[in-house]
Amino acid sequence: MSRVFVSQEIVDEALEEFEGTGITVDLRRDHTPLPAAELRAAASTYDGLICLLTDRIDAEFLAACPRLRVVANVAVGYDNIDVPAATRAGVAVTNTPGVLTDATADLAFALLLATARRIPEGDAFLRAGRYTHWRVNQEQMGVDVHGATLGLFGLGQIGRAVARRARGFDMTVLYHDVQRLPAEDERELGVTYAEFDELLARSDFVSVHAPLLDSTRHRFDAAAFAAMKPTAMLINTARGPIVDEAALAAALREGMIAGAGLDVFEREPEVDALLLELRERVVLLPHLGSATGTTRREMCRMAARSVRDVLTGKRPENLVNTELADRLVAGP
Ligand code: DGY
């Protein structure tokens, strides 16, 4: 009989996916991540694991869990998992793409608007009782979003969803990605390919939608900020370490760029102290990208389905280490 461990609280409804399968599920009813040694000990006898992006699944963890056949991450990003080590150990890794695309794109756009139009500053100003009269030179003077140039770093599902939203704001959309779209797709989406330097030099807003890889870590460093317009703003809803946070704080203080809207941080949940001090045109959120009730429920259900599928001999819909696909399907 297969057993599944859920490392932290999820949406309970997701457990319905296991009904009628005979699979036993042990849900840890706690929303704080376990320290590595405790997670290893807790998961060591299970066949399946549902985990979150705050759980580190590395070679040491995998060695401590010899029965494990599947790790389902409740997130589209899986940089918390050593996928090559999982593949070597014959453990399937799954993520939750698709179901969070629109919620994350909505949040990226909300962050862009909030930063450009200084919405949190206006809210704080009013609540402090400082709104005494309307004036032409309003304290929270912002910049236009409509008609501006948006540079997308990464054009996967979420980047494309942001591009579609930008069309409604009459924005010019540039993108940079390792893979260039066919010309017809570019035309249909209304995006133009740019080399990284050109994207930085031309964009009024640069929004990050790439995965965290060795090649993207600290891609936004002091040199990148120096190449951006002094009026430009950086939006990051992808992964914190893609941006060198100390270099970003320095760039903002020195006026190399004008603003930043960040939903993710380099050492989450820690935020660079210098960044925290900056309040004008800097909006900081606690990793809310996929945080709508519907989306989080669908992410949890998808993770549960993936574990169920692997443990019942089926290929899951969202297998990351596809090299294992053939091994997962039960024989006749
Ligand atoms: C992800 O899915 O990778 C996000 O960071 C959380 O929704």
Topology overview:
Blueprint: E1 3-6, E2 24-27, H1 36-43, E3 48-51, H2 59-64, E4 70-73, H3 83-88, E5 92-94, H4 101-116, H5 119-127, E6 149-153, H6 157-167, E7 172-176, H7 183-189, E8 191-193, H8 196-202, E9 205-208, H9 222-227, E10 233-236, H10 245-253, E11 259-262, H11 273-277, E12 282-284, H12 293-311, H13 325-328
Parallel strand pairs: 1-2, 1-3, 3-4, 4-5, 6-7, 6-9, 7-8, 9-10, 10-11, 11-12
Bound molecules: (2R)-2,3-dihydroxypropanoic acid.
Residues 53, 75-77, 100, 289-290 line the site of (2R)-2,3-dihydroxypropanoic acid (DGY).
Short summary of the structure?
The protein has 332 residues and is an alpha/beta fold.
Report on this structure.
34% of the residues lie in helices and 14% in strands. The chain has 332 residues and is α/β, with parallel strands linked by helices. It has two domains: 3-99 and 293-330, NAD(P)-binding Rossmann-like Domain (Rossmann fold, 3-Layer(aba) Sandwich); 101-284, Rossmann fold (3-Layer(aba) Sandwich), CATH 3.40.50. The strands form two sheets. A seven-stranded parallel β-sheet has the order 8-7-6-9-10-11-12, sandwiched between helices. Strands 2-1-3-4-5 form a five-stranded parallel β-sheet. It is globular, with a radius of gyration of 22 Å. The model has no long low-confidence stretch (mean pLDDT 97). (2R)-2,3-dihydroxypropanoic acid is lined by residues 53, 75-77, 100, 289-290. Residues 5-321 form the D-isomer specific 2-hydroxyacid dehydrogenase catalytic domain. Residues 109-289 form the D-isomer specific 2-hydroxyacid dehydrogenase NAD-binding domain. Keywords: Oxidoreductase. Belongs to the D-isomer specific 2-hydroxyacid dehydrogenase family. It comes from Pseudonocardia zijingensis.
